[in-house]
Amino acid sequence: MTSNPTSTTNEKAGPTVLVAEDDPEIRKALERILNYEKYTPLTVNDGAAALEALAEHEPDALILDVMMPFVDGLSVCRKLRADGNRVPILMLTARHETSDKVAGLDAGADDYLAKPFEMEELLARLRAIIRRSSDSDIAEVYQAGALKLDLPRHLVTVDDKVVDLTRTEFSILQLLMANADIVLERTTMYDRIWGYDFDGDSRSLDVHVGYLRRKLEAAGLPRVIETIRGVGFVLRPGLADSSDAAAGE
Questions:
Q1: Which domain holds residue 162?
Q2: By Cβ atoms counted within 10 A, which residue in 2, 123, 189, 191 is the most buried?
Q3: CB-based contacts of 49, cutoff 8 Å, min separation 6
Q4: What is the phi-psi region of residue 3: left when phi exceeds 0, alpha when psi lies from -120 to 50, beta otherwise?
Q5: Average model confidence (pLDDT) for the chain?
Q6: Residue 1 lies inside a defined structural domain of this protein
Q7: Taking the model in full, what pTM does it have?
Q8: Helix 98-107 / helix 204-218 crossing angle, nearest 10 deg
Q9: Which pLDDT tens digit goes with each residue over 110-128?
Q10: Are 230 and 159 part of one and the same domain?
Q11: Tell me, what's the pLDDT at 134?
């Protein structure tokens, strides 16, 4: 049986955050900290209730537990993305395996946090995904051969073929295209994309870049994003003309 979302208000209501978490202690703790940080939290205890709440409300972000009754978090995430809903999603899970992280990112989550977690890190990640989602005030188009990124339309195409990217993948590509032929260090990219200090053991950036590469290559683009071992990544615009690449094969 699903539950209706509950909400609490504060004097200075901030961004609305929907929390879908079946553990009552974690759910209440998140509600308290979000209130304290001047967010407006809505809480539900399962995936089906999360989908119902999202149909009625337009939250600024979604904190989504993976393991929930009725409809699990991965299924919720996949359905939202399939329906074109681009709400920023921070996924929570008790699992620590890389394959679980990849599954969450592949489902369309913007970020991923394993339990147990520090509230400060959760808030930093939440601020980052909300900031990225509203960072669309600069009307600009980036072009590199067959590859085109339209910032105001949040659209990426290869030879006019639309490439469906997550928010994080889009932000990474935008950052790389804005700094074409410049090697960006991992620390810089973490700060610009996620908004918090780089953890040397984290593989989040590499996972996202891997998915971005695969999507661009599936659309017919050569590998334009190079890994500079021990440093970071760089986008080579001279490789992005798919017609030239095809002619050279």
A1: 141-248
A2: 189
A3: 2, 3, 4, 5, 20, 70
A4: beta
A5: 83
A6: no
A7: 0.60
A8: 50
A9: 888 888 888 988 998 898 8
A10: yes
A11: 66
Q: Which long-range contacts (CB under 8 A, 24 or more apart) does 199-207 make?
A: 203/98, 203/101, 204/101, 204/111, 204/112, 205/172, 207/98, 207/101, 207/102, 207/105
Candidates 3, 5, 2, 25; CA nearest to 17 is 5
Please state which of the ranges 10-14, 44-48, 107-111, 148-152 shows the lowest mean pLDDT: 10-14
pLDDT recorded at residue 200: 46
Kindly tell me the burial class for residue 196, based on how many C-beta atoms sit within 10 Å of its own C-beta (0-12, 13-18, 19 or more).
Answer: middle
Number of domains in the chain: 2
- Last-in-domain residue among 134, 166, 194: 134
Is 106 a member of any domain? yes
Give the mean pLDDT of 223-231.
92
